[in-house]
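Example record used in the benchmark description.
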Amino acid sequence: MVDSRHSHLYMYGVSFAHGSNDGQKGVGLVMLILIGILPASYALNMDYSKAQLAEAYAVSQELEAWVQRATTAQLVVPAAMTNNEAQSLYATLKENLHAIQVKLAGKSSVEQIPKQERFEIRKNILLVTNAFSQLEKNKQLSLPEDVMASIKAKLKVLRNITEYAPTWVIVAIALSLGIGTMIGWKRIVVTVGEKIGKSHLTYSQGAAAEMVAMSTIGLSSFLGLPVSTTHVLSSGVAGTMVAQKSGIQADVVKKIALAWLLTLPVSMLLSGGLFLLFRTILG
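Model output (structure tokens):
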């Protein structure tokens, strides 16, 4: 028998999963803004140690040496790309890997890297990652699995200096999610708990919906898939209503489904329009 205490436990699980997924989106957006506005301070992880910088430098050397050998040995398999396109990507790899080495050489901290070069290093790393991804995606690399795994491990080491978030950003997003839920909880609770079904949720129905939401969101977070907590939870509630044969309110479900369908295109249009507007104003 499920009572309110068990339901609270599942609620805590949903809250944790919610933060692990929706929270990451907020952190990513804030970091994009910070990198765009203050690239000298946020383009690279300023807390990177001397040993980590040395490792990144060594990895870039190893990758450049591998690219040189691959080019010489012509490890290009004609597939979706032409040979010239693949060779162009190899040239991009060599150029950017060499640029990374030049900028990291002799540096014991990120602060020693000139401010104007920090964003350039980030750009170099992104170009290297994208070039390898394109070669792999288009099946241009005839490599054993262990070699490909080694290359991916080296790329991950290289990306670590760019894939980070300061503690204060994580805390700020966590507080924002918590405070926002505290302020706007009633509209969500009333809609999900009272308006989806034709009867109020029972503890068992709530627990079932929360278990589904907790496991679905948690698995999505593990796999790196962005999902909406509200969408998953409201769908779970609708499922319990159908299973209980208590019925669902079609008008409310239609409104929720319509919101799901419109969210992506409307957001794309608004963000694209604002970007074009700001670019025109700011030059």
